[in-house]
Specification:
- The protein is an alpha/beta fold and 106 residues long.
- The protein has one domain.
- Helix content is 27%, strand content 22%.
- It contains five helices and five strands.
- A five-stranded parallel sheet has the order 2-1-3-4-5, sandwiched between helices.
- Helix 3 links the parallel strand 3 and strand 4.
- The longest helix has 9 residues.
- The radius of gyration is 12 Å and the shape is globular.
Amino acid sequence: MKVLLDECVPRKFAALLPGHSVTTVVQAGWKGIANGELLKTASENFDVFISVDRNISFQLNVYAVPVAIIVIHSLSTRLKDIQKFAPAVLKILEQPLTKNFYHVGD
């Protein structure tokens, strides 16, 4: 699956998602683009967007989400805090995804 990591997700998290093509927002050249526009752009090139921004589901119209979004609920954005959620993220990535929100974590 083609995965895009939000700016707030450490780039090293990509290594915890074997078997998937993972790109960061920075690598894609989209740093600083607002969430709505970013997700619209991401939907043209990626299957899923991963973020630790808990507010993202409140910023978007749930019925108009342009791409599947996995939100990791963690104490911080540090790799040591979010890496424990990689197995749950992988489990989500194994299933057919719809343009919806998927939540993992604390």
